[in-house]
Backbone:
C-alpha cells in the first residue's frame, strides 16, 4: 500500500530505535498530545520499545474524552425532547453522562442518529422540516472547519430547524495549562499533526520559547512517531526548546488559511471547561453572535442540570498524563469498552481504550469475555 507501508517499515523502525538509543544519554519524558498518537504508540508497542528512561506521557488530545459532562448532560436533555432529531458522531453515543448515555436514550425511543459529517445533519434538516435537527459539534481545531461550514450552509439555506450544540476545545491553551502545573513532568511535546495541518504551528512558538520546551509537530504512523520522538530527544540533549516539523508532508507553518478563515468567521474564542481537566481560559470556541440563531443551547435553553462524574473514574489524571489507565482500580474490571465508566474507555482516541485493546495488564472478568 503506497504512502502507508513506507511509514510502517520494520527495518526503518529498528534504525530509528538504534539512533534513539545512541542519542539518549539520560531519562526524558515526552507527551504525545493526541489520542490518535497514543493508540499507535500503544497498539504497536512503541512506548515499550523505547530506550530505558525515555517515557511517553499520554496527553489530553481525545476530543470525546474532554467534552465536559455538562455538555453531555445537556445533549441528552435536548435529545430527549420529542420534536428533536439529535445527531452525533458514533463515539459520543456511548460516553457516560451523569445518569445515562445517548445510546440508552435512543433505546428508550429518542431520535438519536449517527452521522459521518455535520453536513449529513444539515441534509436531514432539509429532508425533514418538521423535525428540529441538532448536531453535537465537539472536538479540537480539526473538526471546527467542517462544523463551521455546516452552519454557513444552514444559514445559506435559511434553515430554521437546524442548530449545533458547540463544545470545541483548543490545544495550545491546554498545553500551557499542563506546563503551569508544578507537578507537570513533561519535558517535550509531540504536537498533533492534524491540528497543525489546520492551524499551523505558530501558536506553539511562544509556548516553546517561554517554557524552553521542544514541540515537534508529528504524524500518526509508527515511523512518524519514532522520528518525532528522536527529534524531541535531540532537542532535549542539545538543550534546545524549539518548534520543529516532523510531519512536513502534511503541515505548513501557516496551516490551512481557508480553514482558519471559516473557523474565524463562524466561531469566537471562549473560556471552556474540559472534562477531567477543569476550566481553562480562552481554550474553546463558541458560535459568534452573528450565528447565535444556530445555537442549540440557546434554542432549547436547558438549565439546572446537576452533573456529577463517576466517583471511581480518574479520567482527569489520565488526561493530564499524571496517571496511567492501569493505575485505575476499575480498569479492565468494572470499566471495559463494553461497560465504560468514563470517556477514556469509550473513545477510539481514549487512553484507557488503547491500553485495553492492547491487553495491557488487565485481567478479564467473567462478565467481560
Ligand atoms: S479505566 Fe475507566 S474508570 Fe478508570 S480512568 Fe479509565 S475510563 Fe475512567
Residues:
Amino acid at each position: 500500500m503506497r504512502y502507508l507501508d513506507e511509514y510502517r517499515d520494520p527495518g526503518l523502525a529498528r534504525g530509528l530505535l538504534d539512533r534513539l538509543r545512541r542519542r539518549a544519554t539520560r531519562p526524558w519524558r515526552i507527551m504525545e498530545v493526541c489520542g490518535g498518537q497514543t493508540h499507535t504508540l500503544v497498539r504497536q508497542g512503541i512506548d515499550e520499545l523505547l530506550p530505558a528512561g525515555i517515557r511517553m506521557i499520554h496527553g489530553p488530545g481525545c476530543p470525546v474524552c474532554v467534552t465536559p459532562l455538562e455538555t453531555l448532560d445537556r445533549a441528552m436533555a435536548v435529545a430527549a425532547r420529542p420534536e428533536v432529531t439529535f445527531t452525533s458522531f458514533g463515539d459520543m453515543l456511548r460516553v457516560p453522562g451523569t445518569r445515562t448515555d445517548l445510546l440508552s436514550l435512543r433505546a428508550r425511543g429518542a431520535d438519536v442518529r449517527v452521522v459521518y459529517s455535520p453536513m449529513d445533519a444539515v441534509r436531514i434538516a432539509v429532508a425533514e422540516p418538521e423535525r428540529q435537527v441538532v448536531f453535537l459539534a465537539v472536538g479540537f481545531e480539526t473538526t471546527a472547519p467542517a462544523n463551521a461550514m455546516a452552519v454557513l450552509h444552514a444559514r445559506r439555506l435559511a434553515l430554521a430547524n437546524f442548530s449545533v450544540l458547540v463544545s470545541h476545545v483548543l490545544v495550545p491553551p491546554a498545553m500551557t495549562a499542563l506546563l503551569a502545573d508544578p507537578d507537570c513532568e513533561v519535558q517535550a511535546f509531540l504536537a498533533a499533526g492534524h491540528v497543525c495541518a489546520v492551524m499551523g504551528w505558530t501558536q506553539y512558538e511562544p509556548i516553546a520559547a517561554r517554557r524552553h520546551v521542544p514541540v515537534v509537530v508529528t504524524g500518526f504512523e509508527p515511523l512518524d512517531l519514532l522520528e518525532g520522538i528522536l527529534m524531541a530527544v535531540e532537542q532535549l540533549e542539545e538543550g534546545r526548546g524549539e518548534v520543529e516539523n516532523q510531519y512536513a508532508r502534511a503541515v505548513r507553518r501557516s496551516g490551512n488559511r481557508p480553514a482558519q478563515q471559516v473557523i474565524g468567521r463562524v466561531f469566537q474564542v471562549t473560556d471552556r471547561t474540559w472534562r477531567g481537566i477543569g476550566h481553562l481560559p480562552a481554550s474553546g470556541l463558541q458560535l459568534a453572535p452573528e450565528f447565535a440563531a444556530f445555537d442549540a443551547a440557546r434554542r432549547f435553553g436547558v438549565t439546572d442540570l446537576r452533573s456529577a462524574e463517576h466517583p471511581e473514574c480518574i479520567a482527569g489524571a489520565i488526561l493530564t498524563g499524571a496517571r496511567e489507565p492501569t493505575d485505575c482500580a476499575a480498569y479492565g474490571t468494572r470499566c471495559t469498552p463494553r461497560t465504560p465508566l468514563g470517556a477514556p474507555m469509550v473513545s477510539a482516541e481514549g487512553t484507557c481504550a488503547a491500553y485495553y485493546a492492547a491487553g495491557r495488564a488487565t485481567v478479564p472478568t467473567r462478565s467481560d469475555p
Observations:
- The chain has 16 helices and eleven strands.
- Residues 312-315, 318, 325, 328, 330-331, 335, 341-342, 344-345, 352 surround iron/sulfur cluster (CB under 6 Å).
